[in-house]
Amino acid sequence: MPTHSIECAVRGYLLYLLGCTIFSDKTGTYVSVEYLQYLEDLDKVKEYAWGAATLVHLYRQLGMASRAKCKSISGYLTLIQVLLTYILNFYNNIILT
């Protein structure tokens, strides 16, 4: 298989990963092409601050979900579960000791 085909497949998978899991929106099927510019050079992908970008996106989604007319939330909600579990375990250990 040619290298170009493999790189295109990798970009497609990363675009799916970014658009449908990490930076998901309420449509559930829409993936913005704005992420393609970050996937152009696959060697630079590891240099981006994906964790910070994920937290910014999640914070924005939480802010939008807190409005009175909003009925649902989107974003990488598994991250919230992990963070809350970590925080609760941390404070539980402090209280018990």
Which features characterize this protein?
single chain; 97 residues; mainly alpha; 3 helices; 58% helix; membrane; MAIN-like; AminoTfrase-like_pln_mobile; transmembrane helix; Aminotransferase-like plant mobile domain-containing protein
Number of helices: 3
- Number of beta strands: 0
Note the main sheet: none
Strand content: under 5%
Spell the H/E element sequence.
Answer: HHH
Which term fits the overall shape?
Answer: extended
Measured as a percent range, the helix fraction is 55-70%
Structural class: mainly alpha
Your description of this structure?
The chain is mainly alpha-helical and 97 residues long. It has one domain (3-96). 58% of the residues lie in helices and 0% in strands. It contains 3 helices and no strands. It has helices at residues 3-22, 50-65, 77-96. The termini are far apart. The model has no long low-confidence stretch (mean pLDDT 83). Pfam families: PMD (PF10536). This is Aminotransferase-like plant mobile domain-containing protein. Residues 5-82 form the Aminotransferase-like plant mobile domain. One of its GO terms (biological process) is meristem maintenance. Keywords: Membrane, Transmembrane, Transmembrane helix.
